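for the writeup, i need someone to sanity check this before i put it in the appendix. the sequnce is what the collaborator sent (i think, or maybe the updated version? ugh). structure was predicted straight from it, no edits. if anything looks off just tell me and ill rerun, i have time this weekend
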Amino acid sequence: MIDSILNKSISYVGGRTLIRFADNDIDYDPNFRLYMTTKLPNPNYLPEVFIKVSIINFTVTFDGLEDQLLADVVKNEQP
């Protein structure tokens, strides 16, 4: 349903910028941003989705936090 938004299927009609969404043409603002979140620890998306969007993984692990803390300590101890 949001494929036209992900593809940015924008058209220009009569000086208006339109995008097709759910069989309707609606006005499009170039400053529009879409952020989607999930609580799934390891979401499985189709390859077509990965091509169209930017996926950011904010998963925090104990080992990752330990590495960051160690890097900060070393940076302060040995500049």
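The chain has a mean pLDDT of 85. The chain is about 35% helix and 20% strand.
thx in advance!!
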